[in-house]
Amino acid sequence: MLDTQSQSASIKEVDRPVVLSVEHVGKYFKLPTEQASGLKQAFINWTRGIKGYKEQHVLRDINFEVHQGDFFGIVGRNGSGKSTLLKLISGIYVPDSGRIEVKGKLVPFIELGVGFNPELTGRENVFLNGALLGFTREEIEDMYDDIVEFAELEEFMDQKLKNYSSGMQVRLAFSVAIQAKGDILVLDEVLAVGDEAFQRKCDNYFAKVKKDSTKTVILVTHDMGAVKKYCNKAVLIKDGEVIVNGNKDDVANRYTLENMRADKRDTDNDKADEYPTGLNARVPMLRINALSKQILTCDDTFQFEVEYQYDEPNSYYLAIAMHDIRRGGVTYDTGANVIKLNQHGHCKVKFEVPLKLFNNGEFKLVVSLRTQNAENPNLTDMVAFTNDDNCCIFAVRDEHTRDYALLNDNALQIKQIR
To answer: For burial by CB atoms within 10 Å, which of 297, 303, 320, 342 has the most?
Structure first.
């Protein structure tokens, strides 16, 4: 059944023409390393073979295709090269290697409001912005009423733009972008424009565009919910290279993991200690290893193991806590002395945690190794703990649950009583 569906999807894609082809594209910029104060110094540098700059390779061997009717996502952390890629696609930059082929009229909207003049009226700015996008006056006049209606600014179009609020300016800019009658619309971080009511209108617009097989949208966003909701394909860029290409869910899930990994990196590079933070001669190793996949649904159970080295003959305890990365706080804690152990040397202990109670979110597991307090048997003393490099992260992504609260409806519901 799965193979038949896959075959059907492939046939449908083959039937649709390729409207954007990116083949082996690379781009670098020259960053000056020393300044030549004049022609003489520049000549001396040249004779000595001193370039005076270094090459920063922003994109390396980028390859993907976008078919007509695709809602195509480009995803990546800040600095990954996605904005440079968008400027290459839009013709603002020229690639240093490879080639980009576009079939059809491409309308780039990389920064909302670029080209607006605060001294001109809203009406004049619509015509100015439309001209910058390559439209004739007649074409702009044809879509003017639709632009104003979508932006909900009928009463303000003859006022100068400097008297608009920032939200009004963004609404006008976005309306110009989406009403432009192009074949390919390129949008960069524009899904969170305007107030809640306007966002609902934008959402309806994208839902409509998604059903139009003649329109193609290329969207850059950090919102993985938008990628899963709108896009049918996506690419993930990291350090100037495509690391995931095709399946939107794979791209969104991998991006979530990349963010969690980046958030938990240890930023302290001035460690004078022989051991990493949290570890010592008594416990030289303590870490949590994921045994199951790290992107799960509420029906899954996350399995992990605690691996450590402890050679002292006395009994000891493991305390495990689960932190909510997005919302903050401790979701669960085993307590200081719940898991009592007697193994010694290099050990691995397996655990699991069911996820059926949780809404979508990102979570971090941390563990500490503790021993009995010599004076008070009801207390334990911490010997070692996991730092950001050796804890464990995982995420819950389930289409049947929500993002806001920690607990889902299976765990808790507030019901009206009479």
So the answer is: 320
DSSP secondary structure string for all residues of 89-140: HTTSS--SEEEEEE-S-EEEESSTTTT--TTSBHHHHHHHHHHHTT--HHHH
| 82 secondary structure, DSSP code | H
From the first residue on, what is the mean pLDDT of each consecutive set of 10 residues in the chain (418 residues)?
41 76 92 64 66 79 94 90 90 93 84 77 90 84 91 92 87 80 80 70 82 89 83 92 87 79 52 72 95 95 97 92 90 80 94 95 94 85 88 93 91 90
B/e letters for 190-229, b = 16+ CB within 10 Å, e = fewer, are bbebbeeebeeebeeebeebbeeeebbbbbbbbbbebbbe
Residues 187 and 307 in one domain: no
3-state secondary structure of 253: helix
Q: Which pLDDT value is given to residue 375?
A: 86
Q: Looking at this protein, which amino acid is placed at residue 266?
A: D
Domain identity same for 201 and 310 = no
Please give the pLDDT value at position 240.
92
Residues 19 and 77 in one domain: yes
Q: Which of 390, 388, 383 is nearest to 310 (CA)?
A: 383
Q: What is the distance between the alpha carbons of residues 96 and 28, in angstroms, rounded to a whole number?
A: 7
Structural domain boundaries enclosing 351: 285-396
Domain identity same for 232 and 293: no
In angstroms, rounded to a whole number, what is the distance separating the alpha carbons of residues 157 and 155?
6
In the structure encoding, which two tokens stand for residue 163, read together? 């008297």
Residue 223 and residue 77 share a domain: yes
pLDDT tens-digit series, residues 127-162:
988 887 778 899 889 989 999 998 889 999 999 999
Tokens of 176: 């110009």
What is the 8-class DSSP label of residue 358? B
Co-location of 231 and 292 in the same domain: no
Structure tokens at 401: 């649950």
Domain count, the chain: 2
Examine the domain organization and report whether 171 and 116 are in the same domain: yes
